[in-house]
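Aim 2, interim progress. The first record below pairs a target sequence with its structure tokens.
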Amino acid sequence: MTTQHTPLHYWRGRLIPEELQLGWAPFYNLGFLLFLFMPALFDYQGKTEMYWVGMPPGILWPTLATIAVFLPLYFRAHWGGGRSPIAYTLAIAALGFLLLPVNPFANTYVIYAVAFVAQIGHRLASRLLWVAAILLAFLLEIVLVRFPIFIFALTTIIAVAVFFGNHFYGENARKRAELKLSHDEVRRLAALAERERIGRDLHDLLGHTLSLVALKSELAGKLFERDPAAARREIDDVTRVARDALTQVRRAVSGIRAAGLASELASARLLLESDGIAFQYE
């Protein structure tokens, strides 16, 4: 079956691997970057009320610069393999650390980094250590720049919630993949059993047919001199039997090929996607 893809789906597949089956969620998650512009709602001249005062240039341009660096890191982090997810995670966290002295809402990058830690293919304990290291570094900077500790507390609560949300989502996705693999394996074994049954049927069919062909051919050879008409009838019977057998063999072989191709394609797709390689077929 052919699936029609729009240009939007094409570019989505270029930016986010389709085998992750995340859909548009990574693009929706970019909406949290709006928190970086929250300083525009605050008056930094000592007033406590919130109202629109405009983004100060000293905050706006560094923030835009970090976003320009963040977006390539964000999309490449979804494609990473081996150690590269850790590198992208630390780079995103570093953006938050660099921006924090001028923008207190730079903790948004720290939360993004912790969210990516949940996708690193390590044990849960190892990933929690990475989360702790990032949050401890963030706490140290909070103390150095003399920001309120509640910023760290709020960031920690959100980051931990996001981490475990992504962790359990990944676990559920893995279990669904294993269940699908087991179902495909059952179908593959069923197809293999069917091929073996067809093979036995072919053996019986060909054995019976070839015995009949040999017998009638021998009889036709003996009747050729004495009764040519009877010999011709025997040869006609041999032709008919051979054609019937050929039809039955073709029907059985086509069933084997159809079942074999479907199971082999399914197995190939599961094998490739388990290694992070997209495989599509029609």
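The second target in this work package is listed in the same format:
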Amino acid sequence: MFVWNAVLNQSDTTEFVFRVFTAVPAFQALLFLLFLLLYLMILSGNSAIIWVVCTHSALHTPMYFFLSNLSLLEICYTSVVVPLMLSNILGAQKPIPLAGCGAQMFFFVTLGSTDCFLLAVMAYDRFVAICHPLHYALIVTRRLCVQMALGALGLALFLSLPLTSLGFALPFCGHRREINHFLCDVPPVLRLACADIHVHQAVLYVVGILVLTVPFSLISVSYGFITSAILRIGSAAGRRRASSTCSSHLTMVLLQHGCCSLVYLRPRSSTSEDEDRQIALVYTVVTPLLNPLIYTLRNKDVKGALWKAVTGKAASDID
């Protein structure tokens, strides 16, 4: 209660502005069109995956249930960031009040954390499917799928609420502060505080370990067992079929966890604000854009369902 009162007391007077990418009007227009196009591609690509999974009964399996949830997360995750970024690319810097900055940070951290936890859940699904195929339907039930998806969201909420609250309970110097970023992320906001932030940085580091390192460790263990199981498969075709179901997921894991770790788990003394902003573009724009491309280009079932939805014909001839 004290934390939220502190936020409300500051929210009437404190504003933030985002540092612009460029002050050249021609470049501003090009950046606006580029990010608008990427955003529309993210919305359309991930929406297509959700639609095809929901409308095709052949895809009503746990793996595609998690995939559609991941696509929904990518849409929400990007929508928290990109529209505000677009509004600040053109023209003068537009201030955002403290409460608005806190809301963006809360949803950004919550959705991003849920994304990481869901990738770990998807690794567990692949582990059971490949290592225990005969018991897969008994273990990974629809009820368990819903529980794991809600558990990922609940755990993300549990971690993001105190982190956001602590950050915005800090005093900020001056009426308007410039954030060297395109969103209200935790590290750049903490740099603007007029108080000792060692405790807050420690909390951020602990949360980063829980959100990034722990799920990545579980994913690594799962893929260790999966690799061992694939190597024991007798036929080359069987090994290819088993590994193809994991390659898309593993690509997303490496992109998401790799880039986020560079921002949140590196020592503060070795980080650059400009580098953090560039890396953040990868996991806020590039990864959500690649998600539908990776899963459609490398997944025969999704390609077949999309082809059938567009042409009305089976896609048995798709490689």
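Strands lie at 15-18, 96-97, 176-179. This observation will shape the mutagenesis plan for the next reporting period.
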